[in-house]
Amino acid sequence: MGFFKFNLLSNYSVTSSDNTFKCFVLKEVVLRIFSLLYKFMNRKAKGTRGERELVKAFNEAGWACFRAAGSGSSSYPSPDLIAANAIRRLAIECKVTKDKKKYFEHGELEQLRTFARKFGAEGWIGVKFSGEEWYFLMLEDLEQTGNLFAVSVELAKRRGLKIEEVMGKEKVGLEHIKDKPFENVPEDPLKKKPTAK
């Protein structure tokens, strides 16, 4: 009976010649598993980058915003992002896709709706299509397609809001945020410089 020597940098070999076909099949299976894992991790990394992009934009515009830990893997409802200012609270489910249409299961939307209701927040879907900017849609704006709900590029452009519209600002972009002072934000009394007497 042969044994396998596995090395990620080179092909593994089989010591027994009668297992050549089994080795070939096993090699194909291992390569497909690694390929699927890579695609999954790459997709997750794109989503994480998108979430971080939004966290930065909200925070630099004077909002408090953070990524919710365990989002999508918790048994309790949890959105991807929570953003708030002194007036509003937003629970945002973020999706980054290279496709022209993004689909959502009913349960995924119901979890966002449940969290938003319990937290006293507005529930939003944030979607970024390849080559487009972020669009934000209320749950009611998604179209139902059988058992799923969907948002297409066209629907996002027609019904969705851009980030500056969601925040209630005229123009907010990463290149403009640094130059604008925060409006209507009270000065932190702990950061006041002592006056000389």
Protein topology:
Blueprint: E1 4-7, E2 10-14, H1 20-60, E3 64-67, E4 81-84, E5 89-97, E6 101-105, H2 106-119, E7 122-129, E8 134-138, E9 143-145, E10 148-152, H3 153-159, H4 163-167, H5 174-177
Parallel strand pairs: 5-7
Antiparallel strand pairs: 1-2, 3-4, 4-5, 6-10, 7-8, 9-10
Question: Keywords for this structure?
Answer:
197 residues, alpha+beta, Trna Endonuclease, Chain: A, domain 1, five-stranded mixed β-sheet, three-stranded antiparallel β-sheet, elongated, disordered N terminus
Task: Describe the structure concisely.
The protein has 197 residues and is of the alpha+beta class. 36% of the residues lie in helices and 26% in strands.
CATH class of the domain at 51-177: Alpha Beta
| Principal-axis shape | elongated
Q: Please state the structural category.
A: alpha+beta
Distance between the ends: 90 Å
Main pleated-sheet profile:
5 strands, mixed
Poorly predicted regions are 1-10, 171-186
Task: Return the average pLDDT rounded to an integer.
Answer: 77
Q: Return the CATH architecture of the domain at 51-177.
A: 3-Layer(aba) Sandwich
Rg estimate, integer Å: 24 Å
Strand segment count: 10
Sheet with the most strands: spatial strand order: 3-4-5-7-8
* Count of runs of 4 or more consecutive helical residues: 5
Q: What percentage of the residues does DSSP assign to strands (E)?
A: 25-35%
Quote the CATH topology of the domain at 51-177. Trna Endonuclease, Chain: A, domain 1
The share of residues in helices is: 25-40%
Order of helices and strands: EEHEEEEHEEEEHHH
